[in-house]
Write a structure and sequence with these properties.
6 helices
């Protein structure tokens, strides 16, 4: 199944998808970054995946950026758009256009800790566990229907770095699994509900 991946940073989740691509029926047609120094671009280039850089600060508005992003995505006619560490809030028009085709991975147990600095906030809140969520993207920031989660315990001596590292291990397992459900046609967004094999998750 044809995919476009959107990134902003190191691209470790992108690497996990690249490594699993054949097993999960994923054909990554392009990687788009909003930062020219994102290491994920190099990861894509190493395996000859076309890359595009759209620097959001060069656009006069969020809407103009999203319009160009949409045009770039559409060049590749993807069946799925994967947000693998894409740190941009998307406009409602954009999210509606690709509704049901866009998946995001977020490092918290949603609906807890939407937005940034999730590991620090989980520690500050003295949570007993933390984790990662994969969800369909809607206009609400990190608020689309959750598909699957993986949990990790928060240890007494955890730092932001140690907690982030353990969560990342789970991210790299969970994201390919959920993407595979989509490429198999098992995962769908129906009436704003995530469904697997026809059942609401």
């Amino acid at each position: 199944m044809k995919a476009v991946a959107l990134i902003s940073g190191s691209g470790s989740n992108l690497q996990s998808l690249i490594d699993h691509a054949e097993k999960i029926d994923l054909d990554i047609q392009a990687v788009i970054s909003n930062k020219e120094d994102a290491y994920g671009i190099k990861r894509a280039q190493k395996v000859n995946i076309p890359t595009h850089v759209l620097i959001h600060t060069q656009f006069p508005s969020r809407e103009k950026f999203d319009q160009q992003l949409s045009q770039t995505i559409d060049q590749h006619s993807p069946d799925i758009i994967i947000l693998a560490g894409f740190m941009r809030i998307l406009t409602e028009e954009f999210t509606q256009k690709y509704a049901g085709k866009m998946l995001n991975i977020h490092p918290s147990l949603l609906p807890k800790f939407q937005g940034l600095n999730t590991h620090q906030r989980a520690l500050d809140a003295k949570e007993s566990e933390h984790g990662v969520s994969v969800h369909f993207v809607t206009a609400k920031l990190d608020g689309g229907p959750v598909i699957a989660q993986a949990r990790v315990p928060i240890l007494a001596d955890d730092t932001v770095e140690s907690l982030a590292q353990r969560v990342l291990i789970e991210e790299h397992k969970l994201f390919p699994k959920v993407v595979h459900w989509f490429t198999q046609g098992r995962l769908k967004l129906i009436d704003n509900h995530a469904t697997l094999d026809g059942q609401i998750i």
